[in-house]
Amino acid sequence: MMSRPSVVVVGSSNTDMILRVERIPVRGETILGGAFATAAGGKGANQAVGAARAGGKVALVARLGRDMFGDQALAGFARDGIDVTQVVRDDRFPSGVAFIFVASDGENSIGVASGANARLTPGDVRRAQNVFSHAKVVVAQLEVPLAAVTAAAVSAEKAGAQFILNPAPACAVPDALLRRVTVLTPNETEAELLTGIRVVDEASASKAAARLRRRGARNVIVTLGSKGAWVATERGETMIAGFRVKTVDTTAAGDIFNGALAVALAEGQPLERAAQFANAAGALSVTRLGAQDSAPNRRQIERLLAR
User: Fold this and answer.
1) What angle do CA 147, 148, 154 make, to 5 degrees?
2) Is 255 a catalytic residue?
3) What's the gap between Cα 50 and its chain centre?
4) Catalytic residue chosen out of the listed positions 83, 90, 124, 255
5) Which of 44, 97, 151, 161 is the most buried (most CB within 10 A)?
6) What pLDDT does 176 receive?
7) For the chain, how far is it from start to end, CA to CA, in angstroms?
8) Closest alpha carbon to 245 in 281, 200, 278
9) Are 231 and 238 contacting, i.e. CB atoms less than 8 angstroms apart?
């Protein structure tokens, strides 16, 4: 394999508290659950681990509290060979925590206490210029303040790196930021929030992607779960089919997709082929319980692609 491409991820790190239940409880309902587990999570950290296992040389820009959860997160990043020199330890706020219900059909419901993630600043990002200077691709999501995400986009632009924005959790994204985005990767729900178009099939995904491109995003990939991903570029549009697998837990599937996508793009793969590589990584992740624990390695991804 070629030398490992450099990817910088700017984003969140959480510890996930996971409870398996028969179904997701509705408002006011208590459901007695089954197995409980804790796992490393957070969209930024998930994407960093996903990219590292997919073959990337990864640096993470994030904030953690000075607590047990922060210590455990750093130990996990070290095991995956992630550069954590730009992870700030916050003296006032705790590390982020997510509470996750996982239903028997693999679907999930998540609540997040952001903690130190909410204090990631543009200054934290600007102080990480030494890692941006080597980046081929920069990835960000929306579990940290929008000002920090914008600073990441500016840093990517200065470094001549591609910028992937995963607009999750869904919220309004200004056009000024979209104009700096090389690849925008919403799922159906996020695409609908950003465009007002309900995404239920390829035709509606195409309409939503076109609207997002008109707002400034250079390329758009609308992820459609097990169906695959709709890819829209200035050259045209295409559907990248998904992989048929047994779903165990969909937690972090989108994050693993984005991490693998970043690696493939950093290697110089065309966007459509990179999306297929990312589809394979995301498909493998849903066959396993947990967030970072579900991220496949490069050999596993390539094996599924060959199949």
Assistant:
1) 90
2) yes
3) 8
4) 255
5) 44
6) 97
7) 20
8) 281
9) yes
Give dist(CA 231, CA 223) in Å, integer: 9
Instruction: From 247, 257, 250, 238, select the one nearest 141 (Cα to Cα).
Output: 257
pLDDT computed for residue 132 by the predictor? 96
Q: Are strands 36-41 and 14-20 parallel, antiparallel or unpaired?
A: antiparallel
Chain center to CA of 291: 11
Q: Buried (b) or exposed (e) across 191-219, using 16+ Cβ within 10 A?
A: bbbbbebebeebebbbbbbebbbebbbbb
Q: Rounded to whole angstroms, how far apart are CA atoms 51 and 73? A: 16
Q: Following CA atoms 21, 27, 29, 33 in sequence, which dihedral angle do they give, to the nearest 10 degrees? A: 10
101-118 in b/e burial notation, b at 16+ Cβ within 10 A?
Answer: bbbeebebeeebebbbbb
Quote the CA–CA distance of 68 and 150 in Å, as a whole number: 30
In the numeric block, which tokens belong to residue 225? 């779960």
- Beta-carbon contacts of residue 164 (< 8 Å; ≥ 6 apart): 137, 138, 139, 140, 181, 182, 183, 184, 185, 258, 261, 262, 265
The residue behind tokens 């001549």 is 160
Residue 3 pLDDT class (50, 70, 90 cuts): low
Nearest to 43 by CA among 119, 116, 142: 142
- For residues 9 and 140, what is the distance between their CA atoms, to the nearest angstrom? 6
CB distance 34 to 116 below 8 Å:
no
